[in-house]
Amino acid sequence: MPRRRGSSALAWLVALLVLAGGGWFGWQWLQARVQHERSVETQAAQHVSALEQRIDTLQQEQRAQAKRLQQADTTNRVLRDELLGIGQRAALLEDSVSQLADPERNGAQTLRLDELEIVLGLAEQRLRLAGDLDGARRGYALAASLLDGIHDPAWLSLRQALVQERAALDALGADPRAVAAGRLQAFAASLPALPIAVAGREDATLPWWRRAFARIVDVRHADTAVAIEPGDRAAGLAALQLELTLAQAAAERRDRDGYRQALARADGWTTRLWPDSPQLRERRAQLRELRELPLAIDLPTLGTTLEQLRAMRVAPN
């Protein structure tokens, strides 16, 4: 019995030792396994980090490459623009050289054409803006003398255009504004000659007692339209003179509407200041004629010579 117990205890001891040794080896293997997996994970993380850094580097290089391509494109555009500018300057230089080499475009003729253009422009603007018909005629005469100094046959058509424009300018006669102003002054000067009262027209048809007392008593209707009182006549004459002055000012400005309106108001004052008579009807007819007078200068050919000169100077030979 004691040997069996000892052998069983020894067996149990051996078994425990075997189990303890197996557990220790198992724990060691597990630790090695864990360390191996950790090292593998660390290496994988390092590989991933290296790949990310590589990708970042590639992206930076790609952006730098794109920027260099953009700069190269910009440089190419600038170079292309500079080449185009050089080509244009070369063309301008060639044109300038060809003009200088052309015997028809010498300096004296160019200066004379410049002077001719300035004179034509001044003459046209003097007529358009100031209505100075005589000044415009003198300007066109000076332009004709300048054009006569150019003996090139190429400017023959311009000379013909200037002759036609001068003929149309001379055919205008007097300035319509001056004509209207002169006739208006003559009309104003003729107004004081109008009779204030019409006498002798009804004396034969009046009763004897009215003819007898006509030199003593003046009988007239209370609602008569003609101003008789000195104060009324003075005010009416002042208003009429004001309307005629306004008509004169409108004629100077070539304001046709203001001119006609002022004369219409003046016509109304004539019927208020003088009774009906053949002289008054004649004056009113003159007023109607004055209202229809033109004030503006109508010249369709004005400026055609200047336009043709500019077109011929711009057009290539």
TrEMBL record:
Keywords: Coiled coil, Methyltransferase, Transferase
GO biological process assignments: methylation
Alphabetized Pfam families for the sequence: HemX
Coiled coil: 41-68
Class of enzymatic activity (EC top level): transferase
Gene Ontology MF: a single term: uroporphyrin-III C-methyltransferase activity
Stated name of the protein: Uroporphyrinogen-III C-methyltransferase
